[in-house]
Structure formats: C-alpha cells, structure tokens
C-alpha cells in the first residue's frame, strides 16, 4: 500500500469550513498541489480569524495572481510525477482522482487530521464517493508521535530538520505535507 502524506488549508476551525488548498506527497516523492479558486472559499472566511488566515495561509498560496490553470509533470515513462493547479472543486477532484489513480492502493497520512480528513472526503461530496483505491481509515502523525513516546506538540520542522529559511512556507499545504512525510520517515527509522 502506498503512503500519501497530505495537508489541507481551510478557512477556519468551525463546522462549515471551506477548503482553500490541498497538498499531497507520495512516499516515492510524487506531488499534488491544488488551490481552490477564491469563489469557493472566500465566502467561508469568518470574522476574527481572517487576519491570521490572511497572514499565515493566504499569503503562502502560490497562485494568488492566477484564475485557473493546471501543470502536469511526467517522468520519461509517462507516469505523473507532479500536479500543480488552481481551479474549482470539480477540476481539483478530477485531477486528484487521476493522480491518486496511479497507485493500486493508497493509505492517507496527515497531522491533526480531524479537519483534513473531512475536507479530503468533501472533495468528492462524501466519504463513499472517493476513489476505491483510497483506504477508508486515515492515519495521524500525532498518534505516531505519541506511540513513539514523543510529545505530539513538538515543533515538526525542528524534529525533521527543515531549515528555518524554509519555514516561511509553513501553512502552505504542500510544504506541510512534505514536513509530515519527513516526520514519518524519521519516526519510522528510530
């Protein structure tokens, strides 16, 4: 089963939060990064959290200046190595389906995944509509930290040795997915 490490950015910690972006990296390094067009998530931005959201999430989006696009990167064998895109929810779903479809079976890993998993499922409308190759139980790096006897509230970037220069990208979904992958790899090697 292929492990996919993922993160989402969203409009806030409340029930009807809206997905802003999703980043995924497979254990073999293939990436998927998508930003939703503002019309999808901007109406979900609520009150007091907007300043934090604007400073920490929206400012770390890669494609604020673009309306909609897709870039697909393939290796020499025609396999998809990476997808970077901005689009509506249907476009993100279609390209994420294709990206996930290159793996026979997929196991999803995130960090504090309560919102991430619900938002991941919502890309397809609900849990029963996501691709059949995606295992229905998600896994949480926080639990793995706890099982390994490490405080789950540890600074992830310091734990996995990410340069402070790169931390400016924290709260970018793809950067955070890469950090989750690096933490997982270190935890499993100890």
Task: Give the key terms.
Nucleotidyltransferase, domain 5; alpha/beta; globular; 32% helix; 190 residues; 7 helices
List the helices and strands and how they pair.
Layout (H helix, E strand, L loop, with lengths): L1 E9 L8 E8 L4 E6 L1 H4 L8 H7 L12 E6 L5 E8 L1 H12 L5 E5 L3 H9 L16 E2 H7 L8 H5 L12 H17 L1
Parallel strand pairs: 1-6, 3-5, 6-7
Antiparallel strand pairs: 1-2, 2-3, 4-5
Question: Quick gist of this model?
Answer:
The chain is of the alpha/beta class and 190 residues long. It is built from seven helices and seven strands; from the N terminus they run E-E-E-H-H-E-E-H-E-H-E-H-H-H.
3D architecture notes:
The structure is a single chain. The chain has seven helices and seven strands, in the order E-E-E-H-H-E-E-H-E-H-E-H-H-H. With 190 residues, it is α/β, with parallel strands linked by helices. The chain has one domain: 2-Layer Sandwich (Nucleotidyltransferase, domain 5), CATH 3.30.420. It has a seven-stranded mixed sheet. Strand 6, helix 4 and strand 7 form a beta-alpha-beta unit. The two termini are 21 Å apart. The model has no long low-confidence stretch (mean pLDDT 86).
**What is the CA-atom radius of gyration, in angstroms?**
16 Å
Mean pLDDT: 86
Termini Cα gap: 21 Å
Low-pLDDT regions: none
Q: In CATH terms, what is the architecture?
A: 2-Layer Sandwich
Quaternary structure classification: single chain
Helix/strand structural class? alpha/beta
What is the count of distinct domains?
1
Strand order of the largest sheet: 4-5-3-2-1-6-7
